[in-house]
């Protein structure tokens, strides 16, 4: 199966052909993949070199002149390194772009901590007006990329990962999907952690919501699910643990509730290892998730034993 990033290049290349407003801005990474698109559209595929601040600044300049820029590099170089430009050149000037990241939290362990960005969504949360898509499958990545580019002049972040669920689901760029129903609590699975969450909650009497658009946070879906399934909520996110706990607490602010945020821990893992080893070390494998979810959600353990 192809990866989300494999799908990214042909999708955006087609969008360049279809929409004269679309421009692509790169900082070396991904340049070879867009070589053919650059030959067809030399004025709308721009490589600024290894200059990530300029990457975002140039995108903002294009947006100011009416283009819809799609900006791509590793998450650590797209959100963290040029954060001032994201904040000022896009946010303060009130112009939009589609930031499309690769490498996610720890997709390339051999790259070391410089190429990891588990705090990217939390960092964008400090800014106003961002839509954040976290696809869990290449089909979803394609749908959300098209949705992001078509979203007027909004500020959109699309977080691509090599981690993927076994199959894609129909996503609309707005709402959470209910993929399992129960009565003892709610588990929100974000993007590529869905398969692990479904395996972890097999036999547990819980509702599972699937989230591929996490900002804006679908408070209405969580409220509906919590009303039917109790008010124990577990958030399982493929980035910094607890990133969405405030959003969940706000959604349920008028009812008694408990929220557990699971995700990538703050402690830096200094051995490269493999992606699967990082998943397990952060407790995001199915076995670890089952233990933590069942130990938190009311009635979960009892339901699992029946």
UniProtKB/TrEMBL annotation:
Q: Which residues form the Transketolase-like pyrimidine-binding domain?
A: 2-168
Report the domain of life of the source organism.
Answer: Bacteria
Question: Which CDD domains does the UniProt record give?
Answer: TPP_PYR_DXS_TK_like
Name it: Transketolase
Organism of derivation: Streptomyces glaucus
């Amino acid at each position: 199966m192809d990866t989300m990033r494999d799908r990214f290049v042909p999708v955006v290349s087609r969008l360049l052909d279809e929409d004269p407003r679309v421009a692509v801005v790169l900082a070396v990474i991904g340049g070879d993949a867009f070589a053919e698109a650059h030959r067809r559209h030399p004025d709308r595929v721009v490589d600024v070199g290894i200059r990530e601040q300029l990457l975002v600044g140039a995108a903002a300049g294009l947006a100011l002149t009416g283009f819809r820029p799609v900006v791509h590099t590793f998450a650590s170089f797209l959100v963290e390194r040029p954060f001032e430009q994201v904040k000022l050149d896009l946010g303060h000037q009130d112009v939009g772009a589609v930031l499309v990241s690769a490498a996610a939290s720890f997709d390339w362990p051999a790259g070391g901590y410089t190429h990891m960005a588990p705090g990217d969504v939390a960092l964008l949360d400090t800014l106003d007006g961002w839509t954040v898509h976290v696809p869990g499958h290449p089909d979803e990545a394609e749908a959300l990329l098209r949705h992001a580019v078509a979203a007027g002049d909004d500020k959109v972040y699309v977080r691509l990962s090599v981690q993927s669920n076994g199959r894609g689901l129909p996503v609309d760029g707005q709402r959470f999907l209910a993929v399992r129903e129960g009565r003892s609590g709610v588990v929100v699975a974000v993007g590529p952690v869905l398969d692990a969450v479904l395996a972890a909650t097999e036999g547990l009497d819980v509702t599972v919501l699937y989230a591929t658009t996490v900002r804006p946070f679908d408070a209405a879906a969580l409220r509906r699910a919590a009303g039917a399934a109790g008010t124990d909520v577990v958030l399982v996110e493929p980035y910094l643990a607890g990133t969405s706990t405030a959003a969940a607490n706000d959604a349920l602010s008028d009812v008694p509730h408990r929220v557990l945020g699971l995700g990538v821990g703050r402690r830096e893992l200094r051995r490269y290892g493999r992606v699967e080893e990082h998943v397990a070390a952060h407790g995001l494998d199915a076995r670890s998730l089952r233990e933590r979810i069942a130990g938190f959600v009311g009635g979960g353990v009892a339901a699992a034993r029946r």
